[in-house]
């Protein structure tokens, strides 16, 4: 049984895969990663502006002390999903707590943001889940959406998040740097992907194949650098559902 917030309403949608989505699924199967662009995925033109206004602010984002990097602000939502053929049902999941992730030991509680009441945010989650190749997706599971505002370091070192798929989507950025990279997990000297994601761009990859990270932000003259990103996880069943982690 899904563990849903009692006040959340399940949302049900029929999803049709566009050629763009089919292409991303194919790249994930062949290469283990793919890039995307919000306009090609059909996001509304004002998606980033509306999302940033609604969520990337100090009412939603909070610092977790101690955090790594220390000056990062964040909020998290966890959504429970069920696929019924092409229909995707979403509901808020009751628990957002996980342990020992991303080289950060122990248990930490993050600020909660509820995204499903917002059509824009809900459609973003639906699109992200639809990128997973059909033959690889689970009938049900959890999806984490982490809103990160970083100013200096984006992450501290190449790492894995111990989830099934990771999706990094940049909402806004001031400054340069923050070059995303993937190294092969079975050969950490081999760089597979390296690019600086601009606002509107997305990177999706299968977490167990790579070590991922990003270089530090670099401010321009007189600037405070800032990067707003949504880092999503298509989770293994054991992350929140209390089931054995699948392979
Ligand atoms: Fe990560």
Short description:
The chain has 247 residues and is mostly beta strands.
Shape: globular
Output the number of helix runs: 3
Rg over CA atoms, rounded to whole Å, is 17 Å
Specify the CATH architecture: Sandwich
Largest beta sheet, briefly? Answer: 9 strands, antiparallel
Summed up, the domain count is 1
* Residues in β-strands, percent: 35-45%
Task: Output the CATH homologous superfamily.
Answer: q2cbj1_9rhob like domain
Order of helices and strands: EHEHEEEEEHEEEEEEEEE
Give the CATH class: Mainly Beta
Distance between the termini: 22 Å
> Which molecules other than protein and nucleic acid are bound?
fe (ii) ion
Percent range of helical residues: 10-25%
Descriptive account of the structure:
With 247 residues, the chain is mainly beta. The chain has one domain: Jelly Rolls (Sandwich). The chain contains 3 helices and 16 strands. The chain binds fe (ii) ion (FE2). Fe (ii) ion binds next to loops.
